[in-house]
Structures are given as structure tokens and as C-alpha cells.
Specification:
Elements lengths: L4 H34 L4 H16 L3 H8 L5 H11 L5 H12 L6 H15 L2 E8 L5 H15 L2 E8 L7 E5 L2 E4 L2 H32 L1
Parallel strand pairs: 1-2
Antiparallel strand pairs: 1-3, 3-4
């Protein structure tokens, strides 16, 4: 299969654009966290405001998010919108939004939000864990799993559950880049791949043996 230079270039551009966005979002998130410390503002309280912005405002009114992120709308107009919409927000959160507006980075609101939660979780010893199962977990199973995960991750697991029917009779736990996989489906796939690899090895060995015989 030949590589498509145009597709490769586009993939590279998209990849580095995503990396740059993530890095920039992390910088803003660190600055916001530091501002909370300086002004003795609870990071948890500020994140409640941030969560509310995304869940209670942007979710039902996606057009507003588009307007604030648009380069076609002036900064002054955006600040007027922010004042009208978030007049009851804390001074620090309003200042943060206006700073992003002046720098033309309101498009990073969701990226910064994610980085802020990562920073806050890390400070509190909380570890994000994604648990994938074939069926929803009941409360008792979820509690048992949480207790076991505490000893594995060395902190308080914050579980996000995903239901995937293809996870046959098993469970997949992802902590950062580490995957703990107890899925039967994956085990069967691994066994199948081992059988294929063994067959290939045996065929290659027979070819080598046949060639050696011919040479003699």
C-alpha cells in the first residue's frame, strides 16, 4: 500500500496542531491553578463554575460556544456577551474568561477545562480510570472494583465507565497509558494470534529444513 503524501502531510499538520493545543491548554490551566492558590480560591469551587459553563450553558446553547470561539466576532463583542451571560460568576473566573478573550483563545475552553481537572485530580491524589465492561456495573460490583483499584493506582480512582457488548465476559481497565485487560474476547484474539505466529514459524522452519536437505 503506497503512502499518500497529501494525506501524510495533513495527518502531520493535524497531529501537531492537537499537540500544540494541548500544550497551550496545559499552560493556561497551570496559570489558573496558580491564580487560585494566590487568591486563596478553592479550585474545586472554580471548577464547579467551569463545569456549569460547559454543561448548563454551552450544552443547551451550542451556538453561543461557536460565537465565542469564532475569529469573526470582535473581542469587545465577546466581552459584552460574557458580561451579560456570566455576570454572577466569581471575579477570578470572569477575569480568566476575559483574558482568554483578549488573547483570542476562547476556542481552548474545553481543552483547558480538561487540563484543569487533571491538575486538580493529581493534587488530590485522584487517578482517572476508564473501565469498560460488557454490561453496566451494579453498585456492589462498582464499590468492590473501586476498592481494588485503590491499591493498584495508589490513589483515589475516579472511574469513568464504558459499556461495550464486545467485551465478552471480561473487563478492561485503563489507567493513563496502562491497560489491565481481563477480557475473554481479547484473550481469544491473543490465543488466535499466537496460533498464527506458531504456524508461520513452523512453516518457515520446514522451508529452512527443506532447503538445507536440497543443499546436501
Amino acid at each position: 500500500m503506497k503512502n499518500n503524501p497529501e494525506q501524510d502531510a495533513q495527518f502531520s499538520a493535524d497531529f501537531y496542531a492537537d499537540v500544540t493545543r494541548e500544550q497551550l491548554a496545559a499552560v493556561y490551566a497551570e496559570a489558573l491553578s496558580a491564580a487560585c492558590d494566590t487568591k486563596a480560591v478553592s479550585m474545586d469551587g472554580l471548577l464547579e463554575e467551569y463545569d456549569s459553563l460547559l454543561d448548563d450553558v454551552f450544552q443547551p446553547y451550542p451556538r453561543l460556544e461557536g460565537i465565542l470561539a469564532s475569529a469573526m466576532v470582535s473581542g469587545d463583542d465577546k466581552i459584552r456577551i460574557l458580561n451579560d451571560t456570566f455576570g454572577n460568576a466569581s471575579d477570578l473566573f470572569k477575569s480568566f474568561l476575559k483574558t482568554l478573550t483578549k488573547r483570542g483563545r476562547l476556542d481552548l475552553l474545553r481543552d483547558i477545562h480538561r487540563q484543569c481537572h487533571l491538575i486538580n485530580n493529581k493534587r488530590k491524589g485522584r487517578v482517572a480510570v476508564t473501565v469498560t465492561t460488557a454490561a453496566p456495573l451494579d453498585e456492589a460490583t462498582s464499590a468492590t472494583l473501586t476498592a481494588k483499584l485503590r491499591s493498584i493506582v495508589g490513589g483515589e480512582p475516579i472511574m469513568q465507565t464504558v459499556v461495550d457488548p464486545e467485551t465478552i465476559g471480561g473487563i478492561i481497565v485503563r489507567v493513563g497509558d496502562t491497560i489491565f485487560d481481563a477480557s475473554i474476547a481479547t484473550q481469544l484474539k491473543n490465543v488466535r494470534q499466537q496460533m498464527i505466529d506458531r504456524s508461520i514459524h513452523e512453516i518457515q522452519s520446514r522451508r529452512d529444513s527443506f532447503r538445507n536437505t536440497e543443499g546436501n
